[in-house]
Specification:
alpha/beta; 32% helix
Length: 343
């Protein structure tokens, strides 16, 4: 039985981790903690629906966590993990960080985009980018997982087969992404419902969104050259769900059917990616509350562009579900454990 700790249970991703892991037959939740300065509380007082778990949310105590866990999930704001990760790794614990703190391989890039000093530079080289469908073997051996962001997950899963099979050009890549409001965190969600709901709006356009360096870093690895994209994120009046539309210039004339075959072959045996048949496009409704990513494809024959549509639940495959998928592999379990049954 894997002993699991979660630090930061009061946010959306912390809540999702409890939801998934409380039903996972291979783990035992041993420590649930808030952020620094939090008080001891019954879990039922935070989430009444989990009253039957009879657990408590404890003040952050790293020594207790080290003594009572095998793996720790960090569901914390950016830059908070720097104070915790070194202590846990030195104690021999496996760590899955859901923030952006160890996703970027260049500390200067992190500091530029997140406006804080990176005080965990020595651990960057050891962090494995936890996109299972692309980095499975590395994840199995990892001690520290940098769990991918939600936008990057949709975009990278939607892009990888085309790039790895040399179907598309690396220039003039355009991505239009739409996210449920939960992606911005509880405080911003409250504000949205108080002042805006329902509305759809773009934000942080023209190269300002913090996920851009992560997306470009991983696309550059796939292309084996530096890549710059045009990325437009948008908020939609749903609590959860994400859909990205990616536009590529094709290298050669190809049919939609041919490209679908490439994608289905690439993701053959991958448990949580569904490549849809020609004429069928993904829907947020079909992936909500699941760890699945749906991908639909179409070629615009007038412009010789490949259009990829990718949909996930931003809180599951885009965050907590993907984190559990990583944990399963780190401990030699089937990657689907605790994930196929969630609703």
């Amino acid at each position: 039985m894997i002993r699991v700790g979660i630090i930061g249970i009061t946010g959306y991703t912390g809540e999702e981790l409890i939801r998934i892991l409380s039903k996972h037959t291979g783990v035992k939740l041993t420590v649930l903690a808030g952020r620094a300065g939090s008080q001891l509380r019954d879990l039922k007082d935070i989430y009444p629906k989990y009253a039957d778990l009879n657990l408590k949310c404890e003040p952050l105590n790293v020594d207790k966590i080290k003594n009572e866990t095998d793996v720790v999930f960090l569901a914390l704001p950016h830059a908070v993990a720097f104070a915790v990760v070194p202590l846990l790794l030195k104690a021999g614990k496996k760590v899955i960080d859901l923030s952006a703190d160890f996703r970027l391989k260049d500390a200067d890039t992190y500091e530029k985009w997140y406006k804080v000093n990176h005080t965990g530079k020595e651990f960057i080289k050891d962090a494995v980018y936890g996109l299972v469908e692309l980095n499975l073997d590395k994840i199995k051996e990892a001690k520290l997982i940098a769990n991918p962001g939600c936008y990057p997950t949709t975009i990278l899963l939607g892009s990888a087969p085309a790039i790895k099979n040399d179907l598309v050009k690396s220039d003039d890549i355009i991505v239009d992404s739409k996210s449920g409001v939960s992606g911005s965190g509880r405080k911003n969600v409250v504000k949205y419902y108080e002042t805006e709901h329902p509305t759809l709006r773009a934000y942080n356009i023209a190269g300002k969104h913090r996920h851009i360096p992560e997306i470009e870093q991983e696309l550059s690895i796939l292309f084996n050259k530096k890549v710059t994209i045009t990325f437009t994120p948008q908020i939609i009046p749903l609590e959860r769900g994400m859909l990205s539309t990616i536009y590529f210039n094709l290298n050669n004339v190809m049919t939609t059917s041919q490209i679908i075959d490439v994608y289905k072959n690439f993701y053959k045996g991958k448990n949580f990616v569904r490549v849809l048949d020609e004429g069928i496009l993904p829907s947020i409704k079909n992936v909500a509350n699941t760890n699945f990513c749906e991908i639909g494809l179409s070629v615009d024959t007038r412009t010789n562009k490949l259009i990829v549509v990718s949909a996930i639940d931003n809180l599951v495959k885009g965050a907590s579900g993907q984190a559990v998928q990583n944990m399963n592999l780190m401990f030699g379990l089937d990657e689907t454990e605790g994930l196929k049954e969630i609703k």
